[in-house]
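Issue: copy button drops trailing tokens. Both records pasted manually instead:
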Amino acid sequence: MVRLSLPSGAPSLADAVVESIRAGITAGELVPGRTYSVYQLAEVLEVSRSPVREALLRLAEAGLVQIDRNRGFRVVLPRARDITEIFDIRLALEPAAARRAAELAADDEHAAIRAAFEGLGAAVHDEDRFWLADQQLHDRLMRAGGNQRAAAIIERLRATTALLGPPTTTAGRTLPEICDEHEPIVTAVLERRGADAESTMRHHLEHTGRLLARTLQRDPPGEAVSQSAPRRAAAAG
């Protein structure tokens, strides 16, 4: 019997179902490759089928589940090749956004970036807070770059890698080291050095992508899916 629960504080019921499914995959309650039904999840979560269907459509768009018509859905975890493709897209969008954030963003947007980076530094001893702060910093940088559609694309790509294990930290980086990798990016943005902001963001993403792809080649994600920290750590970068 699948054991899932709805988190509190989600913006909508469908958002809560999305988070519940992600947590179920992380905890090993939803196993990659096995078929589950909408009716089954609705019963377990004690909700109607509509928010479950909406949640599954979102997860399918992110590439996290595959919907089989008239049968149900299956969890699909990305592999090393998928991570390479994801980081290729991120490399096409985020370095340029960092340059625009440096050259064009308003002072209040820079203040928000500074505060997000300070939040990252304050969370290096708390993994839950750290990965949330990491996500918020990258989102601030993307949105300060002025392209909201690109920011939404990056958010979806990070949602895909957020289900992965094992963590980039086990591939050679501690949380303080990951934080330190962001420092030259933020400094260049705040000092309005566009070329440096672009190059340091590119370096950070290339390094993270290589580490994660290499670790996944060694340890397939299905072997680590029951660990909560790896899920969050895989989204770092």
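Record 2 (pasted manually too):
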Amino acid sequence: MPGSSSFSEFLALQAPDLLPSRRAAPTSHAGDLAPHGTTIVAATFPGGVLMAGDRRATMGNIIAQRDIQKVFPADEYSAVGIAGSAGLAVEMVRLFQTELEHYEKIEGTTLSMDGKANRLAALIRANLAMAMQGLAVVPLFAGYDSDAEQGRIFSYDVTGGRYEETAFHSVGSGSLFARGSLKKLYRDDFTEVECATAVVQALYDAADDDSATGGPDITRRIFPVVHVITETGGRRMAETEVAAIADAVISSRMSRPDGPAAALT
């Protein structure tokens, strides 16, 4: 090693971070610096579609908020649920709502379901630079298609890729467990209340296995936000309705902690 009197000096010149006294401290991931929204589920039923989200936001291993809203109406016939960096996601939803309202005022009619889904994909793609720094937004979009006369669900990736889902879907940290739950519970002849019960069961299962997903909070009476969309438009299910469903789910779990079994056909 010409010019170097010791290996430590050589290492200090070539790779100083390998020296014990100079090893760089691990840097925080940008995504850990802001609250994150987690699990969103959606499912179709004859005549409509339903979307629900838990109420917990996390920041690393900390619960940042217990009653955050993650499901929003996009317009009269569609809704969007947010997963990922909560602040960016809420701003994206507001911009999306404004663009749909602007289009309706200019054109005198609502944008088609495919048009809405494509516009949301473009907004997600525009956030790609932030996503590469750990501040990703991955929403779930659902609505009633008046032309097809049915509910439709769309999922996305961080690059803005758009994918239409069949029957049900979930996004967020607890999505794996929520989808597994819906696989055994879903039926294509659900009533609106039965569909709402199934998605609350799915959120309960997600919270059971994913610490970032919040289950129904009985002591604070905080329950999932459930948004229902049919041919007559969308509405947020009343807190009392969701509370009654959640109470019934929790009561049934007292005797069967793993939840209802799938019906055999």
